[in-house]
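User: Could you check the structure of this?
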Amino acid sequence: MNPITLAIADDHELVRKGLKLLLNSFEHFNVIHEAPNGKQLIDWLNTTPSHPNIALVDVGMPIMNGFETTSYIHSEFTNVKIVALSVYDDEQTILKMIESGANAYLLKDSAPELVKETLIQVNEKGYYYSQHVMSAMLKAKEQILSGNHSTANRNTIQPIDTLTAREIEFIKKCCSEKTYKEIASEMKISQRTVDGYRESVFSKLDIKSRSGIVVFGFMNGLVENKG
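Assistant: Sure, the predicted structure tokens are below.
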């Protein structure tokens, strides 16, 4: 098994060093870079020939915060998956990081087993949302529908009239841990057709990642709450 390579951006040195020690203690994990803020992480990504599989990005950093860093990496380094790190567990912060392009969201007091499982799932499947994150999505949906939520995330609830039945089926299957290859097999279509559905959904819903598809699915009742 090839090692899962990682980069860490966090302005607290003790957190970075401790997380690096933890991750390097896991079999097949290798931290190849650490940075004290998002700008320095991006500067390194712009110069290194070997990008990490996953970047762990702190939400509250100086110079360039987690939202800005995640959005930039998601746009410019599409081969790098992003896991948000934070002490904040409110639904608005969680949702904003996911909408910025984060493939997963970890609280800094998460158990080591959850950290490892999250990184493995993100590396293999492309995203991983814990029950806590899914609950935050559903709570945000309730607040949006009741008019008590900021307008920043209202674009996650949109009319689905422009979507075809097969695109809706595709979205529902995206709200699982299935790979695109597995989705193609279940829908009895080619990988190229799945790619076409993905790009069409991205265009129609103005989203840029599978994470965005999952958020849209939760917000529009296209996946059951399994909690």
